[in-house]
Amino acid sequence: MSLRLIKLNSGYSIPSVGMGCYNLPPAQTSSIVYEACKLGYRHFDTAVLYHNEAEVAQGISKYLQDHPGAKRLEFFYTTKVWDLQQGTAGTRKAVKDMVAKIGNLEYIDLLLLHSPLPGTKKRLESYAVLQEAVEAGHVRSVGVSNYGRHHVEELLQWSGLTHPPAVNQIEISPWVMRTELAQWCLAQGIHVEAYAPLTHGNRLAAPEPGLALAAACKKYGKSPAQVLVKWSLSKGYIPLPKSKTPSRLKENLEVNDFELTPDEIAGIDQPDSYDPTDWECTDAP
């Protein structure tokens, strides 16, 4: 299936659904990514922390090699600088290592700072290096992850900014909506990638009967995962569902044949809930 493309403030386009590669076993990652490419995925999200950057790139590269009609431009490869690498020297080395891992992919589509935790000085030093990588042609778009509004404002007000963040990647689901932060980012022209949109599976096994999620699943003949991916898309976000099972990978993409109504979206919303399944550092100093 074809994925809608979203134009970033860098001028490049990103597929509207990506495959999260966190916790994929490195020994299996290349083959899982290859199968995902066959199913229609064109957007892959990895990180230094995941220890599978090279394997993600290998899976995409093998697919391109085996399918001459497929073009590199169709694919979108994201990775992230880990916290311990932040700072000028550390980030320069990280970028060099990342570029060495992409093989035949030639460039990194999106490079993010994984979190704001290293503090203002290292955040800005690292972002300066990301901008250098864009100017050198190694990276096309840059951005941040797990940033709160004050972190993004710090960056937007920085005198050294030449490439505004294209993306803020944060955990978003109906149970950790972050509506104010996400809508503010969108208003700044910064797209929002929603990681853990399926709550790491915590809420998928048995949606509470009688509630809007279960009702939508029944009405449209869709799984909870599919409805949650659609919910995220309906909010204007770019969801990054993760699975290593081909049937579920396929299912997570099959969301173009139904639309949630505004009432259904509002019913799935859990504005009074705050239940992140991952780390929380949007409120870090």
From TrEMBL:
Annotated stretches, region: Disordered: 262-285
Annotated active site: 50
Domain NADP-dependent oxidoreductase: 25-270
Documented EC number(s): 1.1.1.358
Composition-biased stretches (Acidic residues): 275-285
One Pfam family recorded for the sequence: Aldo_ket_red
Gene Ontology MF: a single term: 2-dehydropantolactone reductase (A-specific) activity
Residues bound to substrate: 114
Catalytic activity: (R)-pantolactone + NADP(+) = 2-dehydropantolactone + NADPH + H(+); isatin + NADPH + H(+) = 3-hydroxyindolin-2-one + NADP(+)
Keyword vocabulary terms for this entry: Oxidoreductase
Gene3D superfamilies assigned to the protein according to its UniProt record, in alphabetical order: NADP-dependent oxidoreductase domain
Enzyme class: oxidoreductase
PROSITE patterns: ALDOKETO_REDUCTASE_2, ALDOKETO_REDUCTASE_3, PROKAR_LIPOPROTEIN
UniProt record, GO biological process: arabinose catabolic process; cellular response to oxidative stress; D-xylose catabolic process; ketone metabolic process
PANTHER family: 2,5-DIKETO-D-GLUCONIC ACID REDUCTASE, ALDO_KETO REDUCTASE FAMILY PROTEIN
Name by which UniProt lists this protein: 2-dehydropantolactone reductase
